[in-house]
Amino acid sequence: MLVPGADEATQAAGDSADTMISTVTQAFFSGAEASLEAQRSATGTYDGTPLEPPIVLIRADESGYCIEVDRAPLLQHVDGPGGTPATGHCT
Q1: Global pTM?
Q2: Which residue, 63, 64, 31, 69, is CA-closest to 50?
Q3: Burial of 41 per CB tally in 10 Å (0-12, 13-18, 19+)
Q4: Where does the chain have alpha helices with state H?
């Protein structure tokens, strides 16, 4: 027998964890995007930008890039510049 309200409390805890993961992931992407823009300003290309794990630069050239974070259970990417996090690998 479950305690009344246990399902709601469990759901709320799961929602809080999801929000925290999303916030941390967004911070990773924001930091990486700042580094990518600095590289492009200095060299004219996003290629060769050093990024800190767990962010990985999948592809980059003069006009754009795709970065990923793959930390179970989360797999997201951003096509940039100006993209938003999306589920899955870079395409």
Answers
A1: 0.76
A2: 31
A3: exposed
A4: 6-43
| 56, two tokens | 């990985």
What single letter denotes the amino acid at residue 22?
A: S
Residue 46 identity: Y
34-76 pLDDT, tens per residue? 999 999 999 999 999 999 999 999 999 999 999 999 888 889 9
Nearest to 80 by CA among 91, 68, 67: 67
Residues 6+ positions from 28 with CB-CB distance below 8 Å: 54, 55, 69
List the domain boundaries for the chain.
6-87
- CA–CA separation, 50 vs 4, rounded Å? 51
Beta carbons of 69 and 29 less than 8 angstroms apart: yes
The token duo for 39 is 């590289």
Task: Tell me which amino acid residue 14 is.
Answer: G
